[in-house]
Specification:
alpha/beta; two-stranded antiparallel sheet; single chain; binds 5-[1-(pyridin-2-ylmethyl)indol-6-yl]-1~{H}-pyrazol-3-amine; 7 helices; 31% helix
Length: 233
Amino acid sequence: MKVDVLTLFPAMFAGPLDESIISRARESGRLELAIHDLRDWTHDRHRTVDDEPYGGGPGMVLKPEPIFEAIEALANDTTQVVMLTPQGESFGQPKARALSAHEHLLLLCGSYEGFDERIRTRVHHEISIGDYVLTNGALPAMVVIDTVTRLLPGVLGDDASSAEESFSEGILEYPQYTRPADFRGMKVPEVLLSGNHAEIEKWRREQAEQRTAERRPELQKDNSENFKDETTK
Ligand code: JCE
Protein backbone atom coordinates (compact mmCIF):
# COMPACT_ATOMS: atom_id res chain seq x y z
CA MET A 1 0.00 0.00 0.00
CA LYS A 2 1.12 3.53 -0.79
CA VAL A 3 0.37 6.26 1.78
CA ASP A 4 1.02 9.94 1.08
CA VAL A 5 0.68 12.42 3.95
CA LEU A 6 0.10 16.15 3.52
CA THR A 7 1.04 18.11 6.65
CA LEU A 8 2.38 21.45 7.92
CA PHE A 9 4.57 19.52 10.38
CA PRO A 10 6.52 16.89 8.44
CA ALA A 11 9.10 16.66 11.25
CA MET A 12 6.46 15.22 13.59
CA PHE A 13 6.46 12.06 11.47
CA ALA A 14 10.15 11.28 11.99
CA GLY A 15 10.48 8.76 14.78
CA PRO A 16 7.10 7.09 15.38
CA LEU A 17 6.99 5.52 11.91
CA ASP A 18 10.68 4.57 11.91
CA GLU A 19 10.37 1.95 14.65
CA SER A 20 9.48 -1.69 14.97
CA ILE A 21 6.64 -3.13 12.86
CA ILE A 22 6.01 -0.03 10.75
CA SER A 23 9.70 0.32 9.95
CA ARG A 24 9.88 -3.33 8.85
CA ALA A 25 6.72 -2.92 6.73
CA ARG A 26 8.47 -0.04 4.96
CA GLU A 27 11.73 -1.94 4.49
CA SER A 28 9.89 -4.94 3.04
CA GLY A 29 7.98 -2.69 0.61
CA ARG A 30 4.55 -3.61 1.99
CA LEU A 31 4.12 0.04 3.06
CA GLU A 32 5.38 2.85 0.88
CA LEU A 33 5.12 6.05 2.95
CA ALA A 34 5.84 9.60 1.77
CA ILE A 35 5.48 12.71 3.95
CA HIS A 36 4.85 16.00 2.09
CA ASP A 37 5.04 19.58 3.38
CA LEU A 38 1.86 21.45 2.42
CA ARG A 39 3.94 24.63 1.98
CA ASP A 40 5.57 23.03 -1.08
CA TRP A 41 2.32 23.83 -2.95
CA THR A 42 2.28 27.56 -2.13
CA HIS A 43 3.52 30.19 -4.58
CA ASP A 44 4.07 33.32 -2.44
CA ARG A 45 7.22 34.47 -0.64
CA HIS A 46 5.76 33.67 2.78
CA ARG A 47 4.50 30.22 1.75
CA THR A 48 1.02 31.09 3.05
CA VAL A 49 -1.29 28.17 3.81
CA ASP A 50 -3.96 29.89 5.93
CA ASP A 51 -6.16 32.99 6.04
CA GLU A 52 -8.82 34.67 8.21
CA PRO A 53 -12.31 33.16 8.27
CA TYR A 54 -14.98 34.92 6.18
CA GLY A 55 -17.60 36.25 8.58
CA GLY A 56 -15.02 36.81 11.28
CA GLY A 57 -14.21 34.75 14.32
CA PRO A 58 -11.11 33.43 16.04
CA GLY A 59 -8.14 31.74 14.43
CA MET A 60 -7.20 30.92 10.88
CA VAL A 61 -8.50 28.55 8.20
CA LEU A 62 -6.48 26.44 5.73
CA LYS A 63 -6.76 27.96 2.24
CA PRO A 64 -8.10 25.76 -0.55
CA GLU A 65 -5.45 26.48 -3.24
CA PRO A 66 -2.38 24.65 -1.81
CA ILE A 67 -4.44 21.64 -0.74
CA PHE A 68 -6.25 21.36 -4.11
CA GLU A 69 -2.89 21.60 -5.94
CA ALA A 70 -1.31 18.99 -3.66
CA ILE A 71 -4.22 16.60 -4.16
CA GLU A 72 -4.02 17.11 -7.93
CA ALA A 73 -0.27 16.33 -7.82
CA LEU A 74 -0.45 13.31 -5.50
CA ALA A 75 -3.80 11.62 -6.19
CA ASN A 76 -5.16 9.64 -9.13
CA ASP A 77 -8.48 7.89 -9.80
CA THR A 78 -7.62 5.04 -7.44
CA THR A 79 -6.62 7.27 -4.49
CA GLN A 80 -8.76 7.46 -1.37
CA VAL A 81 -8.39 10.92 0.19
CA VAL A 82 -8.70 10.86 3.99
CA MET A 83 -9.12 13.97 6.11
CA LEU A 84 -8.37 13.88 9.85
CA THR A 85 -10.65 16.23 11.79
CA PRO A 86 -12.60 16.30 15.08
CA GLN A 87 -15.82 16.41 12.98
CA GLY A 88 -15.13 13.11 11.24
CA GLU A 89 -16.61 9.64 11.57
CA SER A 90 -15.34 7.82 14.69
CA PHE A 91 -12.30 5.74 13.85
CA GLY A 92 -12.24 2.12 14.92
CA GLN A 93 -11.02 -1.29 13.82
CA PRO A 94 -13.76 -1.72 11.15
CA LYS A 95 -12.73 1.54 9.45
CA ALA A 96 -9.05 0.56 9.71
CA ARG A 97 -9.83 -2.73 7.98
CA ALA A 98 -11.79 -0.96 5.22
CA LEU A 99 -8.97 1.52 4.58
CA SER A 100 -6.36 -1.26 4.55
CA ALA A 101 -8.05 -2.73 1.45
CA HIS A 102 -7.09 0.29 -0.71
CA GLU A 103 -3.91 0.55 -2.78
CA HIS A 104 -3.36 4.27 -2.20
CA LEU A 105 -4.32 6.64 0.65
CA LEU A 106 -3.69 10.38 0.79
CA LEU A 107 -3.99 11.67 4.37
CA LEU A 108 -4.76 15.37 4.88
CA CYS A 109 -3.63 16.69 8.28
CA GLY A 110 -5.11 20.07 9.11
CA SER A 111 -4.03 22.58 11.68
CA TYR A 112 -5.28 26.00 12.90
CA GLU A 113 -9.08 25.99 13.20
CA GLY A 114 -9.57 23.64 10.28
CA PHE A 115 -10.07 23.44 6.52
CA ASP A 116 -11.92 25.69 4.08
CA GLU A 117 -15.18 23.80 3.56
CA ARG A 118 -14.62 23.47 -0.23
CA ILE A 119 -11.72 21.09 0.41
CA ARG A 120 -14.28 18.49 1.50
CA THR A 121 -15.46 18.16 -2.12
CA ARG A 122 -12.20 16.24 -2.82
CA VAL A 123 -12.32 14.01 0.29
CA HIS A 124 -13.60 10.40 0.48
CA HIS A 125 -13.29 9.80 4.25
CA GLU A 126 -13.37 12.25 7.16
CA ILE A 127 -12.12 10.61 10.35
CA SER A 128 -11.87 11.53 14.04
CA ILE A 129 -9.70 9.35 16.27
CA GLY A 130 -11.58 10.39 19.42
CA ASP A 131 -13.49 13.05 21.28
CA TYR A 132 -10.68 15.31 22.42
CA VAL A 133 -9.11 18.28 20.67
CA LEU A 134 -5.56 18.02 19.36
CA THR A 135 -3.54 20.91 17.93
CA ASN A 136 -3.38 19.36 14.45
CA GLY A 137 -4.05 16.22 12.45
CA ALA A 138 -0.53 14.75 12.47
CA LEU A 139 -1.03 12.41 15.45
CA PRO A 140 -4.38 11.15 14.07
CA ALA A 141 -2.68 10.47 10.71
CA MET A 142 0.00 8.42 12.48
CA VAL A 143 -2.71 6.48 14.35
CA VAL A 144 -4.38 5.67 11.02
CA ILE A 145 -1.06 4.64 9.42
CA ASP A 146 -0.19 2.39 12.35
CA THR A 147 -3.58 0.65 12.54
CA VAL A 148 -3.84 0.17 8.78
CA THR A 149 -0.24 -1.01 8.28
CA ARG A 150 -0.45 -3.84 10.80
CA LEU A 151 -3.46 -5.20 8.85
CA LEU A 152 -1.58 -5.42 5.53
CA PRO A 153 -0.79 -8.95 4.31
CA GLY A 154 2.56 -10.20 5.64
CA VAL A 155 3.16 -7.35 8.09
CA LEU A 156 2.33 -9.27 11.27
CA GLY A 157 3.69 -12.73 12.00
CA ASP A 158 1.34 -15.73 11.70
CA ASP A 159 0.62 -15.88 15.45
CA ALA A 160 -0.32 -12.22 15.72
CA SER A 161 -2.43 -12.42 12.53
CA SER A 162 -4.58 -15.31 13.76
CA ALA A 163 -4.95 -13.70 17.20
CA GLU A 164 -6.08 -10.58 15.32
CA GLU A 165 -8.75 -12.50 13.41
CA SER A 166 -10.32 -14.14 16.44
CA PHE A 167 -10.00 -11.50 19.16
CA SER A 168 -9.72 -8.06 17.63
CA GLU A 169 -13.25 -6.80 18.36
CA GLY A 170 -16.04 -7.28 20.83
CA ILE A 171 -14.15 -8.42 23.90
CA LEU A 172 -11.20 -7.32 26.00
CA GLU A 173 -8.13 -9.48 26.52
CA TYR A 174 -7.86 -11.86 29.46
CA PRO A 175 -5.11 -11.19 32.07
CA GLN A 176 -1.63 -12.37 31.03
CA TYR A 177 1.28 -13.50 33.18
CA THR A 178 4.85 -14.56 32.59
CA ARG A 179 7.64 -15.68 34.89
CA PRO A 180 8.30 -15.50 37.82
CA ALA A 181 5.31 -17.39 39.26
CA ASP A 182 5.70 -15.38 42.49
CA PHE A 183 6.81 -11.77 42.06
CA ARG A 184 7.13 -9.84 45.34
CA GLY A 185 4.35 -11.96 46.81
CA MET A 186 2.02 -11.43 43.81
CA LYS A 187 1.23 -14.94 42.60
CA VAL A 188 0.21 -16.11 39.14
CA PRO A 189 -3.27 -17.71 39.30
CA GLU A 190 -2.87 -21.43 40.08
CA VAL A 191 -4.98 -22.54 37.09
CA LEU A 192 -2.40 -21.14 34.63
CA LEU A 193 0.30 -23.36 36.16
CA SER A 194 -1.96 -26.45 36.17
CA GLY A 195 -1.38 -27.62 32.61
CA ASN A 196 -5.15 -28.27 32.33
CA HIS A 197 -5.93 -26.61 29.00
CA ALA A 198 -9.71 -26.93 29.27
CA GLU A 199 -9.65 -25.24 32.70
CA ILE A 200 -7.27 -22.53 31.43
CA GLU A 201 -9.55 -21.79 28.50
CA LYS A 202 -12.60 -21.57 30.77
CA TRP A 203 -10.79 -19.23 33.18
CA ARG A 204 -9.64 -16.96 30.36
CA ARG A 205 -13.12 -16.72 28.86
CA GLU A 206 -14.60 -15.84 32.28
CA GLN A 207 -11.92 -13.24 32.93
CA ALA A 208 -12.33 -11.64 29.50
CA GLU A 209 -16.14 -11.51 29.84
CA GLN A 210 -15.94 -10.08 33.38
CA ARG A 211 -13.42 -7.46 32.32
CA THR A 212 -15.53 -6.47 29.30
CA ALA A 213 -18.72 -6.22 31.39
CA GLU A 214 -16.97 -4.05 33.98
CA ARG A 215 -14.95 -1.76 31.73
CA ARG A 216 -16.64 -1.73 28.31
CA PRO A 217 -20.24 -2.95 28.67
CA GLU A 218 -21.11 -1.40 25.28
CA LEU A 219 -18.81 -3.99 23.61
CA GLN A 220 -20.66 -6.94 25.14
CA LYS A 221 -21.91 -9.42 22.55
CA ASP A 222 -21.77 -13.12 21.77
CA ASN A 223 -18.09 -14.03 21.67
CA SER A 224 -18.44 -17.81 21.76
CA GLU A 225 -16.59 -18.14 18.41
CA ASN A 226 -13.56 -16.51 19.99
CA PHE A 227 -13.06 -19.18 22.59
CA LYS A 228 -13.13 -22.41 20.65
CA ASP A 229 -10.15 -24.61 21.38
CA GLU A 230 -7.27 -23.49 19.10
CA THR A 231 -6.86 -27.06 17.83
CA THR A 232 -10.53 -27.41 16.76
CA LYS A 233 -10.87 -23.97 15.08
C1 JCE B 1 -7.30 19.71 14.46
C2 JCE B 1 -8.75 22.28 16.06
C3 JCE B 1 -11.03 22.04 15.71
C4 JCE B 1 -10.28 23.82 17.03
C5 JCE B 1 -6.80 20.64 12.47
C6 JCE B 1 -7.64 18.71 15.36
C7 JCE B 1 -8.66 15.15 15.58
N1 JCE B 1 -9.56 13.42 17.06
C8 JCE B 1 -9.04 14.62 16.80
N2 JCE B 1 -8.82 15.50 17.73
N3 JCE B 1 -8.32 16.58 17.16
C9 JCE B 1 -8.20 16.41 15.85
C10 JCE B 1 -7.74 17.42 14.91
C11 JCE B 1 -7.48 17.11 13.58
C12 JCE B 1 -7.13 18.11 12.66
C13 JCE B 1 -7.06 19.43 13.12
N4 JCE B 1 -7.19 21.06 14.62
C14 JCE B 1 -7.34 21.78 15.85
N5 JCE B 1 -9.76 21.60 15.51
C15 JCE B 1 -11.30 23.13 16.46
C16 JCE B 1 -8.97 23.38 16.81
C17 JCE B 1 -6.90 21.63 13.43
